[in-house]
Write a structure and sequence with these properties.
Layout (H helix, E strand, L loop, with lengths): L1 H13 L2 H67 L1 H9 L2 H15 L3 E6 L4 E5 L11 H7 L5 E7 L1 H7 L1 H7 L1 E2 L13 E2 L2 E11 L5 E9 L4 H11 L11 E7 L2 E5 L2 E3 L2 E2 L7 H9 L4 E7 L2 E11 L5 E10 L1 H51 L15 H93 L7 H25 L9 E3 L1 H11 L1 H4 L4 E7 L5 E3 L1 H17 L5 E9 L7 E7 L7 H6 L16 H11 L3 E7 L3 E9 L3
Parallel strand pairs: 16-18
Antiparallel strand pairs: 1-2, 1-7, 3-6, 4-5, 6-7, 8-9, 8-14, 10-11, 12-13, 13-14, 15-17, 18-19, 19-21, 20-21
C-alpha cells in the first residue's frame, strides 16, 4: 500500500487543481505582463538613448556650422580687405609704413591675431603685429593664392617656433601643460606647444605692382570666447533638463586646447586629453563619435568629429556633449515608478482572486491532505466535509466511505499477520538455538580431531627425530675428540650446534605440549630480555641476508623475566621471521624491550615492529587462531597460536597492531621475575 501511495503522490501534487488555477490566473499578470513590460522598457530605453544621440548629433552640427562660419567669415574679411579701396590706395602710395598701419587697424577691426602681406618670393612686406622672425611661406593656402587660385581658408597647425616668428605672445598662449588624464593614451610629453590656427589668404598686389598674398589668422588655443560662443549657441538656456550641462571643446590632436569643461570649480580642463577609445575612432579611423564617453571626470553623451588641416591630415577634434547622469536618473526614476506600480497592482489583485478561489481550493486541499495522511499510515484520517450538492462534496463523502472499508480490512490483515509472525518467531528461535549448539559441537569436534592428529603425529615425529639427533650429538662429540685442542677455535660454533640440536628436541617437546599441555611443564629461568633477543638474531641471519632489512634495537629493560629461555627464544624467533616475511622488498625491523606495568603488575614489554605490508582487520582478529595462516604453502598456522600458549602459560599477554601498507607491531608482555 505504501508503494502505491508513493506512486500516486507525484502526479497528484504535480497536477494540483490549485496550481493550475493559480497558473491560469497569475500567468498573464506575473509572467506575460512583466515580459511585455520588459520588452517595452527595453525598446523605450533604446529609443530614449537614440533620441539623446540624435540630439547630440544635432548639437555637433550646430558647432560644426559655427566653426565653418568662422572659417568662411575670416576668409571673406581677408579677401574683402585685399580688394578694398583703402588697401589699393595704400598700395599705390608705395610706403611700407602706410601698409603696416592699415594692416594693424584692419587686424583689430576684423579680430585677427596676425595679418601680414607677403610677396611671391616669400618675403614679408608688412605685418601686424610686427613679426619677430620669418614666417613660413609654403603653406598650401598661400601657394594656391600666389599661383592664381581663388582665396583659401582652413585650419593649420603652427609649431611653437612658427608662432614665435609671428609673435611671442601667440607662442606663450599656445603653450599648455598636459594634465594626467585617466583612460588617455600614455605619453611622455608634459607640454603642448603647437597652436591650431584659423588660416586665411587672399591674392593682393604688393607696393610697386608685384603679386602678393594677404595672410591672416586666429589662434584657437585658449580662445575661450570662441568656445563659449559655440556652447551658448548649442546649449541655450532650458535646452537641457535641470542638473545637466552642455560642454564644447576644441582638441589639438587629443589635447583640450579650448574648452568649457571644468576640472573643478573655477578651472577649465585645458591640457587634459581625450580617452584612448575616442582618439582611436576619431583621429585614427576618421569616424564621428556619437555615444557615451568619459570626459575628464564624468560620463557625457558626446559627439566628436575630426578636424582636417589644409594638407588634408586629421589634426584635431571638435566636441560637444552634455552630462549623462540626469538622463540616467530620469530613466531609473521611470523604471522605479513602473515597477512600483506593477507591484502595487499585483498586490491588490492577487488577494482578491485568492479569496474568490478559496471556495474551490478548500475542499480539494482537504481531500488531498486526507489522502496524504492515509499514505503516511494514518488510516483514521477523514475529510469530514459536510454533504453538498456539488461534485467535489460528493467525492469527499464517497472517499470517507471507502476509507472506512479500507481501515477495517487493514485491521483484519494486521491481526492475521501478527499471529503468523508470532509462530514464525517461535520456530526461528528454536532453529537458531539448535544451529548454535550444532556449530559449537562441530568446532569442538574439529579441534579435538586436529589436536588428536597432532598428538599422534608428534609422537611419531619425536621418535623419528630423536634417533638422528642422537647420531648427530654422538658424531659431534667424536669430532671434538678428533680435533682435540683445535676444538677451542670453533668453541662458539660447537656451542651453537649443541644448542640447536637441543632446540630441535625442545621443539618436538613443545609440539607435544601444544597437543597435551596438561601432561608437560617446562623449566623456567630468569633472563634479561636483551640477551634473549641478541641470541635470536644469529639464528635468523640467513633470512636477513636475503633482503635489505635494517635492524634497530632498543634494550631499555632493567627487569628480569621468569620463563624457559628456549620457549621465549622460540616466541621471538617466530615473530622476527614473520616480520622478515612481511618485508620482501626490505624495510626496518625494530626490536625494543623496556619496563612496563600492566593492571598494577610490574613487567617487561618486548616489541617486534616491521614496516611491511601489514594486515587488515579481519586477519588481525584471526592471527592467533590455530591453523590460520596467510602463507598458503609454507605455513602451518601454528606459530602464533603456540607462541600465545607459551606466553599465557607465564601469565603474560601477546597483542598485535597493524595497518595495511604501513606494517605491524607485536607486543609481548611478561610479568617481572620474583
Amino acid at each position: 500500500m505504501g508503494d502505491r501511495a508513493g506512486s500516486i503522490d507525484g502526479p497528484v501534487r504535480g497536477r494540483s487543481v490549485r496550481f493550475r488555477l493559480l497558473a491560469i490566473a497569475l500567468l498573464p499578470m506575473l509572467v506575460i505582463l512583466p515580459l511585455l513590460l520588459g520588452v517595452a522598457i527595453y525598446r523605450w530605453n533604446a529609443r530614449f538613448d537614440a533620441t539623446l544621440i540624435s540630439k547630440v548629433n544635432g548639437d555637433l552640427t550646430i558647432a560644426h556650422q559655427y566653426l565653418a562660419r568662422i572659417l568662411e567669415k575670416t576668409g571673406v574679411q581677408v579677401r574683402g580687405l585685399s580688394l578694398s579701396f583703402r588697401f589699393r590706395e595704400v598700395e599705390e602710395q608705395e610706403t611700407l609704413s602706410a601698409v603696416a598701419d592699415l594692416l594693424e587697424q584692419s587686424r583689430k577691426e576684423i579680430g585677427l591675431d596676425f595679418l601680414y602681406l607677403v610677396d611671391a618670393g616669400g618675403k614679408v612686406i608688412a605685418s601686424s603685429p610686427a613679426l619677430k622672425g620669418a614666417p613660413r611661406a609654403d603653406w598650401p593656402i598661400i601657394t594656391s593664392v600666389l599661383s592664381g587660385e581663388s582665396p583659401s581658408t582652413g585650419i593649420d597647425i603652427f609649431t611653437n617656433d612658427e608662432l614665435a616668428a609671428i609673435s611671442p605672445v601667440l607662442a606663450d598662449r599656445a603653450r599648455l601643460d598636459l594634465v594626467p588624464t585617466p583612460n588617455a593614451v600614455p605619453t611622455d610629453r608634459s607640454t603642448e606647444t603647437s597652436g591650431m590656427v584659423v588660416h586665411a589668404a587672399s591674392r593682393a598686389t604688393a607696393p610697386g605692382g608685384g603679386p602678393a598674398a594677404l595672410v591672416g589668422g586666429i589662434l584657437l588655443n585658449q580662445n575661450l570666447e570662441f568656445i563659449d560662443t559655440i556652447n551658448d549657441l548649442v546649449y541655450r538656456e532650458a535646452s537641457l533638463p535641470e542638473g545637466s550641462q552642455g560642454t564644447a571643446t576644441l582638441f589639438l590632436d587629443d589635447v583640450r586646447i579650448s574648452t568649457n569643461v571644468r576640472l573643478f570649480e573655477g578651472r577649465r580642463a585645458l591640457g587634459t586629453r581625450v580617452s584612448a577609445a575616442v582618439r582611436s575612432a576619431v583621429m585614427g579611423e576618421g569616424r564621428t563619435w556619437l555615444d557615451s564617453a568619459f570626459v575628464v571626470n564624468d560620463w557625457y553623451i558626446s559627439a566628436y568629429e575630426p578636424l582636417v588641416d589644409t594638407y588634408g591630415k586629421r589634426v584635431g577634434m571638435l566636441y560637444v556633449g552634455f552630462l549623462q547622469k540626469p538622463f540616467n536618473d530620469a530613466k531609473l526614476e521611470t523604471l522605479l515608478i513602473i515597477a512600483l506600480a506593477f507591484i502595487a497592482i499585483t498586490a491588490a489583485t492577487v488577494p482578491i482572486f485568492l479569496r474568490w478561489a478559496q471556495s474551490i481550493f478548500m475542499p480539494l486541499e482537504r481531500v488531498t491532505a486526507t489522502i496524504g495522511e492515509v499514505e503516511s499510515g494514518n488510516l483514521s484520517a477523514r475529510t469530514k466535509l459536510p454533504a453538498s450538492g456539488d461534485e467535489i462534496g460528493r467525492v469527499a463523502v464517497h472517499l470517507d466511505t471507502l476509507l472506512d472499508q479500507i481501515q477495517e480490512r487493514d485491521r483484519q490483515l494486521r491481526e492475521w499477520n501478527e499471529e503468523l509472525n508470532t509462530r514464525v518467531r517461535e520456530r526461528t528461535r528454536d532453529l537458531e538455538l539448535a544451529n548454535l549448539k550444532l556449530e559449537a559441537t562441530t568446532k569442538q569436534l574439529i579441534m579435538s580431531e586436529k589436536l588428536a592428529a597432532i598428538g599422534e603425529i608428534t609422537a611419531g615425529v619425536a621418535h623419528e627425530i630423536n634417533n638422528p639427533i642422537a647420531v648427530m650429538q654422538g658424531n659431534l662429540d667424536v669430532i671434538r675428540s678428533v680435533i682435540g685442542a683445535d676444538a677451542e677455535k670453533a668453541k662458539v660454533e660447537f656451542r651453537l650446534v649443541d644448542e640447536q640440536i637441543h632446540r630441535i628436541s625442545q621443539i618436538v617437546t613443545k609440539l607435544l605440549q601444544f597437543a597435551r599441555p596438561e601432561e608437560y611443564a617446562g623449566y623456567v629461568e630468569r633472563h634479561t630480555p636483551g640477551s634473549v633477543v641478541a641470541d635470536c638474531l644469529p639464528l635468523v641471519q640467513h633470512l636477513l641476508n636475503k633482503t635489505e632489512i635494517r635492524i634497530v634495537r632498543e634494550d631499555r629493560a632493567s627487569r628480569l623475566v621468569l620463563m624457559n629461555r628456549t620457549e621465549l627464544q622460540q616466541v621471538l624467533i617466530n615473530l622476527i621471521v614473520n616480520a622478515i616475511h612481511a618485508m620482501p622488498d626490505g624495510g626496518t625491523l625494530t626490536l625494543r624491550s623496556y619496563d612496563a606495568d600492566r593492571d598494577g603488575v610490574s613487567g617487561i614489554l618486548i616489541e617486534v615492529a616491521d614496516t611491511g605490508i601489514g594486515m587488515d582487520v579481519d586477519v588481525v582478529e584471526k592471527v592467533f587462531d590455530p591453523f590460520f595462516t596467510t602463507k598458503r604453502r609454507d605455513g602451518t598456522g601454528l606459530g602464533l597460536s603456540i607462541s600465545q600458549t607459551l606466553i599465557k602459560r607465564q601469565r603474560g599477554q601477546i597483542t598485535v597492531e597493524s595497518e595495511v601498507g604501513r606494517g605491524s607491531t607485536f607486543r609481548v608482555w611478561l610479568p617481572e621475575a620474583d
